[in-house]
Amino acid sequence: MKSDEFTATKVRRCHIVATEPRERIAFDLERLGESESGLHIVLEWVARAPHLRVETTVSIEELRLIGELPSSEWADWEDLIAIHDEAVLRSLVEKRLLIVQGSSADEADQSSRDSHWHRTSAVAHYASRWQGIDIEQRDREFKEHAARKVLDYLGPPPVPVRERVEPAQRFRLPPAAPTPFDALLLKRVTCRNYDRSRELGLAEFSSVLFRTFGARAVVETAPGVRLLKKGVPSAGGLHPTEAYLLVQRVEGVAPGLYHYHPIDHALEPIRSLSAEEASELARRFVAAQAYFVDAHVMVIPTSRFRRNFWKYRNHAKAYRALTLDVGYLSHTIYLSATELGLAAFITAAINEVDIEQAFGLDPLEEGPLAVCGFGIRAAERKEVEFDPLHAVWLD
């Protein structure tokens, strides 16, 4: 990149960037000797920005310049190289932390600006996304590394309940009168065993989707502002969480990827899949957690960030509201499925990037926070399920 290419070109720092110091162990042959092992600590600065999708290392000089360049206005390239080290500026352009007006980086960075992310929430969200992670492989590596008992390796866990006063000081409450809802809650057990030999009925499939995501009413509260009434709460009544589906075994529904339309109570086909392709995608979505792969349906609650941040712009609590949405929705899936004699699960250990690519989602606009699933529980328990009340399984 030559300086004359930047004549009259304008640049600015990207909208959101966070940096942190990181230490790593390196080996240096020259340090290997009688008094040294050759190993030493290397301190690096790492920069994260949502429009980059991946982190990048920066030098001290680049870090200093990041702190000096504004992101709110464009600056002429020639003016910058007159007062700053041109090589450092070029490096920041190549790393897409310094944005060239009209470039592809500018388009991605502008999307970040337009969606009104709160800066710290954006960094936390994009830094925690996975791609191609295999939980089973990690578990095997953990077991090999921690050959001793887990408690010897991890130490004792914190107590299950924090106690603030002595037992005698507690105000005892009257027992709750049992209702059918209690029986339903007792049967709510995360399922790790699904029946591959049976199809989920279309009526049951439809019922769980409608109860969880379906719109009971559409209300226009102001010109052009339409809000949905659903069976779960949502901050500001915005309901920014969409349902994307991976269907494997449902009566009358071909295996494939779908989007659920909550007003029309209908499926929108995205891509057809063979049974083998669907199973492989399911495995990738849940980071190879084999006990979830056979669920008849996977429902991916996906946040439409711009819908939520349209009202709660750059708001410190806006992202938290999205995570609450997923909690409400996932538990409604559990209860709806349990009432119908079905089984359900939720996991946050997911490969977000793989899901985004499969459904064609722009991660600056729309992204998954978890994967839920439901279906018919297998007659035989092969995988351990946490059912201490024996509401589902008898030992």
Write structural notes for this entry:
The protein has 395 residues and is α+β, with helices and mostly antiparallel strands. The chain has two domains: 14-114; 179-375, NADH Oxidase. It has helices at 60-68, 77-83, 86-94, 104-114, 119-127, 135-145, 150-154, 180-186, 202-213, 275-285, 290-293, 305-311, 318-339, 352-359; strands at 10-13, 18-32, 37-48, 56-58, 75-76, 98-100, 217-222, 225-229, 241-247, 256-261, 266-272, 297-304, 343-347, 366-368, 371-375. The strands form four sheets. Strands 9, 10, 11, 12, 13, 14 and 15 form a seven-stranded antiparallel β-sheet that branches. The protein is globular.
Summarize the SSE layout with pairings.
Layout: E1 10-13, E2 18-32, E3 37-48, E4 56-58, H1 60-68, E5 75-76, H2 77-83, H3 86-94, E6 98-100, H4 104-114, H5 119-127, H6 135-145, H7 150-154, H8 180-186, H9 202-213, E7 217-222, E8 225-229, E9 241-247, E10 256-261, E11 266-272, H10 275-285, H11 290-293, E12 297-304, H12 305-311, H13 318-339, E13 343-347, H14 352-359, E14 366-368, E15 371-375
Antiparallel strand pairs: 1-5, 1-6, 2-3, 3-4, 7-8, 9-10, 9-12, 10-11, 12-14, 12-15, 13-15
Domain Nitroreductase: 186-375
InterPro entries: Bacteriocin_Proc_Enz, Nitroreductase, Nitroreductase-like, SagB-rel_DH_2, SagB-type_dehydrogenase
Pfam families: Nitroreductase
